[in-house]
């Protein structure tokens, strides 16, 4: 057994009593001591028969009562029977004694156990679980809050369950709480002392409030009521992962002291002066409209009166005065009369409000004009003066402050030793990047400046502004390596992990908590144990699937973290789904999940967990990509609106296309799909399309190869389908496909197919009323088609259709041409056809930019600046014009138009094509090409503006208008901001889908 000297001789006190104020010692002092004696076993159960009891003090505090409940519940799952909870030990049974009281009666004490530490110690048939427990704390009532009260015995109980019953707390609920069934539970005698290496061990799983999105992470098990109890379940997870009971973290403390409420009217000089000459006392000033930073105002740190007021508040808090005595009344909205949540006893949070505003008053501007270092020193000078004054007057405690932009740099002067530093850093996703190198250097410099480790590292491994709602941010390897690497420099860390799905971060939270408690643990060992215990024989396959998630997410952040900047630069949705979470990745993950299910088919619990993860962790991502792919094809990637002839205009079908009416037709090119000689791609022909009320007309022109150099046959022979021929294929939406074909000899074939379960039937030749004529000569050949609407079920709003041509030269290889560029092998691939529209439902006027530019103006479009936008021919869809924007410097440039005809409570589909050409962002993390739709609220499309250079890509967004809509105030824009280079837009469409 360990001696008392071995156990306690080197520990420092964890609790100080200064001027009547409870002041927890937040300096990390980790202890991990264990001695086990298997020669003296303690029998808790045998073959499901209980040999033990849980003993509570007769007047147990809420922490101890909750500890007994947790022990009883989890041990019952382990051994298969209830272990009774009593208030007295029972002879002949192993007694699990809970709390410091029993421990002291046994002759020991916890006087030198560090904050959050505990002891697990046996003596005879008694096992003592003991730590300091605050009688004011109630785990049931307060689950989910920061819970600033000690609960050492509860932590001892969770450690006991992990060590001796094999329980693992990966995440709350049946699936994530692993409790091996052990009807016989025999454990060794023990002497264990534990205290965490990090004093600050906090994570945030909450989400930023965004309209139309849940304000708490989506849960995954139980009834709807249980899913809504996510905050309580998350609080339970904080207990089980042994999070900090106290954590001094600077978190905009000055913003939480109610200065706007207290002084906006009586002391307006306390607040920053804006460039409009107003005092910053409300949320509607500055660029941060809607940002919580505006709610609490912004301060003028040069103002002597403010400096004095902050000192008075700091003195009141650090000397134990109540918030009411200090005059802190924030109203019911902010919790009433209380000190703010970031104010840990003994630590006054002096950090300014978020989105720090550069005060325009003469005193501040005289400093700020000297650049970023001057801004940095001005803020730290304010903190230094406050800390030095408190120290001089012997006020106990420390000033908590964060190094945060724009005051994250090292100050050019020394700081007093009563400053407790929180440092903002990107976090685990920067590991291995330039930003990580920069952060690490700054961390080292700060530790040198302070002469001690940093109090808390505030990191941001969460979904930035909730842009990637359905992508799991599962990066446990990076999390473990990051905090382990930085452990020598910090007393603790805060992981700000916003996520829409709680499960997306569960293993990050678990890894962080384990490494934070014991820095010597190896991340790889933690992960191996996790996959083995969760997934049994499917462990390796699931590990590979998780590793794929980690690689994808880190690649998502690669560009942002590679830049040594403070603004993220993230891939837009095109890049995300085509370069990171692409089809190959989705296929690999699906294959691994299939493999894991097969491997665990005989292991009930492991199989259930594999299926659970498939549904809840991987499912949203797989569904999101499918949805994205589906949205791209809801409007075909290839479409045209066919113009209509006036009543008196006629098309004569004679194979010559010299009728004046053909001049009103649209002309589109054929695309080369495959084949051709090794010397290059043959030239494609063109297609003209027009209609009247009774017929659809198409005219093929093939000037590339003289007809006498092509293979084609007259007569009804079988060679027709294997030689040069042109085809029109129509799916009018009646379950059939119509095929009209001809060759240069004028030979015609008309076929009809049925479509059943997305499969074509064998064709049958139809007796058609279509008129088809050809002409051929040395300059190529022409084919004219007139197809009656009555033959295809009548005139419909649109057809799914395609037009193709096989060129078989006398000498050389055949070539395949198609109107739709998505064809792969044959003309019968109807899933890759385009769309022909016979009535244009597009609410965007001149969305195809067909109308010619006049005097620098583009019809129906209003440009923000003349000369920035112009029309370019032959760059858009089907040889139509594209809108080209050329940008030499930063700024915001756009073309806009009012939208006529939008309706309330209606679903719409908005789409456009975009081709960026050397778009370069001027500012890291922002800038690019985009479109917006405004209908009472504004939607940016895509969610992250496009930059760089890429091929022509279609963007699709489906949205629903609100029930209240002002039709006169609907509009849209296409444009750029903060970039140089060029971008091309074409085929801009907005179409009504119907009621949601």
Key phrases:
21 helices; 8-stranded mixed beta sheet; alpha+beta; 10-stranded mixed beta sheet; single chain; disordered N terminus; 996 residues
Describe the structure.
By secondary structure, the protein is of the alpha+beta class. The protein is built from 21 helices and 43 strands. Strands 19, 21, 24, 25, 26, 27, 28, 31, 32 and 33 form a ten-stranded mixed β-sheet that branches. Residues 1-22, 283-294 and 677-681 have low confidence and may be disordered.
Fold topology:
Layout: H1 4-8, E1 15-18, E2 21-24, E3 31-46, E4 49-50, E5 52-55, H2 62-79, E6 85-86, E7 94-98, H3 100-105, E8 118-123, E9 126-131, H4 139-142, H5 152-165, E10 168-169, E11 177-178, E12 185-195, E13 200-204, H6 224-228, H7 230-240, H8 259-263, H9 292-295, H10 304-318, H11 323-326, E14 347-349, H12 362-368, H13 372-392, E15 398-403, E16 419-425, H14 434-450, E17 456-459, H15 476-486, E18 492-496, H16 506-517, H17 523-535, H18 539-562, H19 573-580, H20 583-599, H21 604-634, E19 639-641, E20 666-669, E21 671-675, E22 686-691, E23 695-702, E24 725-731, E25 736-742, E26 748-756, E27 759-760, E28 764-765, E29 771-777, E30 780-788, E31 798-807, E32 815-818, E33 834-837, E34 862-863, E35 869-872, E36 882-887, E37 892-898, E38 907-921, E39 928-934, E40 938-946, E41 953-960, E42 971-977, E43 979-994
Parallel strand pairs: 5-6, 5-7, 7-9, 13-18, 14-15, 15-16, 16-17, 17-18, 19-33
Antiparallel strand pairs: 1-2, 3-4, 3-12, 8-9, 8-12, 10-11, 20-22, 21-32, 22-23, 23-30, 24-25, 24-31, 25-26, 26-27, 26-28, 29-30, 31-32, 31-33, 34-37, 35-36, 36-43, 37-42, 38-41, 38-43, 39-40, 39-42
């Amino acid at each position: 057994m360990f001696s008392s000297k071995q156990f306690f001789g080197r520990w420092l006190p964890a609790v100080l009593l200064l001027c009547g104020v409870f002041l927890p010692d937040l300096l990390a002092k980790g202890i991990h001591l264990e001695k086990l004696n298997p020669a003296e076993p303690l029998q808790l159960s045998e073959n499901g028969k209980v040999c033990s009891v849980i003993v509570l003090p007769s007047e147990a505090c809420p922490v101890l009562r909750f500890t007994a409940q947790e022990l009883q519940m989890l041990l019952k799952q382990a051994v298969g029977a209830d272990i009774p909870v009593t208030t007295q030990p029972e002879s002949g049974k192993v007694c699990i004694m809970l709390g410091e009281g029993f421990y002291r009666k046994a002759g020991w004490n916890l006087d030198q156990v560090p904050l959050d530490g505990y002891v697990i110690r046996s003596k005879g048939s008694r096992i003592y679980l003991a730590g300091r427990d605050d009688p004011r704390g109630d785990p049931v009532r307060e689950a989910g809050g920061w819970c600033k009260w000690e609960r050492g015995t509860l932590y001892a109980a969770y450690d006991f369950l992990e060590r001796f019953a094999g329980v693992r707390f990966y995440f709350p609920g049946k699936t994530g709480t692993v409790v091996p069934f052990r009807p016989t539970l025999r454990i060794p005698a023990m002497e264990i002392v534990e205290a965490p290496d990090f004093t600050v061990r906090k994570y945030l799983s909450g989400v930023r409030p965004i309209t139309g999105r849940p304000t708490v992470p989506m849960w995954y098990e139980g009834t709807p009521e249980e899913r809504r109890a996510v905050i309580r379940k998350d609080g339970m997870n904080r207990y089980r992962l042994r999070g900090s009971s106290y954590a001094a973290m600077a978190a905009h403390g000055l913003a939480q002291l109610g200065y706007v409420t207290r002084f906006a009217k009586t002391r307006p000089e306390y607040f920053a002066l804006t460039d409009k000459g107003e005092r910053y006392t409300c949320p509607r000033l500055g660029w941060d409209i809607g940002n919580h930073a505006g709610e609490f105002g912004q301060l003028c740190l040069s103002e002597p009166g403010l400096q004095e007021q902050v000192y008075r508040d700091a003195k009141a808090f650090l000397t134990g005065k109540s918030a009411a005595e200090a005059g802190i009344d924030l109203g019911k909205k902010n919790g009433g009369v209380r000190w703010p949540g970031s104010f840990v006893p003994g630590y006054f949070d002096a950090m300014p409000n978020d989105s720090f505003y550069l005060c325009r008053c003469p005193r501040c501007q005289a400093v700020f004009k000297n650049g970023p270092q001057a801004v940095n020193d001005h803020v730290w000078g304010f903190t230094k003066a406050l800390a030095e004054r408190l120290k001089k007057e012997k006020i106990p405690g420390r000033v908590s402050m964060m190094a945060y932009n724009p005051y994250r740099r090292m100050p050019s002067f020394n700081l007093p030793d009563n400053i407790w530093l929180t440092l903002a850093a990107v976090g685990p996703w920067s590991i291995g990047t330039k930003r990580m190198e920069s952060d690490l250097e700054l961390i080292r410099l700060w530790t040198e400046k302070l002469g001690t480790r940093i109090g808390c590292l505030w990191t941001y491994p969460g979904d930035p502004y909730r842009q990637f709602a359905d992508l799991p941010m599962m990066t446990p390897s990076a999390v473990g390596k990051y905090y382990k690497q930085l452990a020598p420099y910090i007393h603790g860390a805060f992981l700000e992990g916003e996520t829409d799905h709680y499960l997306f971060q569960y293993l990050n939270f678990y890894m962080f908590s384990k490494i934070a408690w014991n820095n010597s643990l190896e991340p790889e060992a933690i992960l191996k144990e996790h996959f083995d215990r969760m997934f049994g024989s499917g462990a390796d396959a699931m590990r590979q699937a998780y590793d794929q998630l980690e690689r994808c997410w880190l690649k998502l952040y690669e560009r942002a973290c590679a830049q040594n900047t403070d603004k993220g630069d993230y891939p837009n949705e095109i890049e995300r789904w085509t370069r990171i979470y692409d089809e190959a990745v989705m296929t690999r993950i699906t294959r691994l999940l299939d493999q894991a299910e097969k491997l665990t088919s005989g292991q009930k619990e492991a199989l259930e967990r594999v299926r659970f993860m498939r549904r809840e962790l991987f499912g949203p991502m797989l569904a999101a990509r499918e949805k994205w792919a589906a949205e791209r094809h809801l409007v075909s990637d290839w479409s045209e609106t066919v113009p209509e002839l006036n009543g008196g205009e006629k098309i004569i079908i004679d194979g010559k296309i010299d009728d004046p009416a053909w001049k009103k037709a649209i002309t589109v090119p054929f695309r080369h799909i495959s084949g051709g000689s090794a010397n290059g791609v043959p030239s494609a022909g063109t297609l003209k399309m027009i209609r009247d009320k009774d017929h659809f007309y198409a005219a093929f022109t093939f000037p590339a190869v003289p007809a006498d150099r092509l293979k084609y046959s007259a007569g009804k022979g079988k060679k027709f389908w294997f030689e040069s021929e042109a085809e029109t294929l129509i799916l009018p939406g009646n379950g059939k496909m119509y095929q009209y074909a001809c060759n240069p000899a004028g030979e015609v074939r008309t076929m009809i197919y049925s479509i059943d379960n997305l499969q074509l039937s064998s064709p049958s030749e139809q007796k058609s009323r279509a008129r088809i004529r050809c002409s051929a000569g040395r300059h190529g050949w022409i084919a004219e088609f007139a197809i009656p609407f009555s033959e295809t079920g009548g005139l419909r709003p649109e057809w799914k259709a395609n037009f193709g041509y096989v060129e078989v030269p006398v000498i050389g290889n055949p070539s395949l041409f198609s109107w739709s560029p998505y064809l792969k092998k044959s003309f019968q691939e109807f899933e890759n056809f385009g769309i022909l529209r016979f009535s244009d439902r597009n609410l965007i006027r001149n969305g195809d930019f067909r109308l010619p530019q006049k005097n620098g103006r583009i019809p129906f479009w209003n440009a923000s600046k003349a000369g920035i936008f112009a029309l370019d021919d032959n760059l858009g869809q089907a040889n139509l014009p594209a809108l080209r924007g050329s940008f030499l410097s930063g700024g915001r440039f756009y073309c806009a138009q009012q939208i006529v005809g939008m309706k309330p409570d209606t679903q719409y589909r908005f789409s456009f094509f975009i081709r960026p050409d050397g778009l370069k962002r001027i500012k890291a993390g922002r800038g690019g090409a985009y479109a917006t739709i405004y209908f009472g609220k504004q939607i940016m499309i895509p969610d992250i503006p496009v930059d760089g250079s890429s091929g022509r890509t279609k963007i699709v967004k489906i949205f629903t208008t609100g029930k209240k809509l002002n039709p006169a105030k609907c509009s849209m824009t296409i444009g750029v901001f903060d970039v140089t280079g060029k971008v091309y837009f074409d085929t801009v469409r907005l179409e009504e889908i119907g009621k949601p």
